[in-house]
Amino acid sequence: MPTSWEAEELRRKELNRRIVRWVASSLLVVLAVSLLAMWGCPQYRIYSQRLTGESELAQATYNRRIKVQEAQAALDSASKLAEAEVARARGVAKANQIIGQSLKGNEAYLHYLWVQALADKQAAEVIYVPTEANLPITEAGRLGQSFTETHKPETP
Fold first, then answer.
1. Do 129 and 116 touch, CB atoms closer than 8 A?
2. Is there a domain that residue 24 lies in?
3. Is 131 part of any domain?
4. Is 134 left (phi over 0), alpha (psi -120 to 50) or beta?
């Protein structure tokens, strides 16, 4: 039977072997991780750049679609506005035609409206009434005098 000293020596040797195995396996793991990192980092960088490129391409495509849709909306809007303007112009033309037809041969009513418009005016205005030759009666002399009276140069 081994003595206590020999038994202690056997236990130390076994413990040393276990420590050496553990250190060796740990070194193998560290070496494997290092090799994986040396190979994986460039691969990850390539993968990351590819994803970044795909993301930028998707963003550019999305922005382009937005611009196309905005341009299409502006085109549709302009088309509808043009249609509305045409419809409004047709309505005005129709109204003018109806008014013109109703006023033909109705000069007395037109004179009545003219007199009413003159009566409604508050401020004094110069109104030129056509003569029988359809030439206006000018009051250039009277207007010229009132202009020089209101715009006299100041004397020092």
1. no
2. yes
3. no
4. left
**DSSP per-residue codes, 121-134:** --S----PPB-TTS
Q: Is residue 145 part of a domain?
A: no
Provide the CA 48 distance to its chain's centre, in angstroms.
34
Tokens 């409206």, located at residue? 113
Q: Which residues lie below 8 Å from residue 103, measured CB to CB, with a gap of 6+?
A: 109, 110
Distance CA 69, CA 65 (A): 6
**Can you tell me which residue has the tokens 């490129």?**
53
- Phi first, then psi, for residue 139 (nearest 5°) are -125, 45
DSSP-assigned beta bridge partners for residue 130 = 136
- Positions in the chain whose pLDDT score sits under 50: none
* Confidence at residue 26, expressed as pLDDT on a 0 to 100 scale: 92
Looking at the domain assignment, is residue 142 inside a domain? no
Count the domains in the chain. Answer: 1
Q: What is the dihedral of CA 69, 70, 75, 81, to 10 degrees?
A: 130
Domain that includes residue 92, residue range: 4-123
Question: What pLDDT, in 10s, does the model give residues 102-120?
Answer: 878 778 877 888 788 777 7
* Distance of alpha carbon 100 from alpha carbon 93, whole angstroms: 10
Please report the pLDDT score of residue 154 as a whole number. Answer: 61
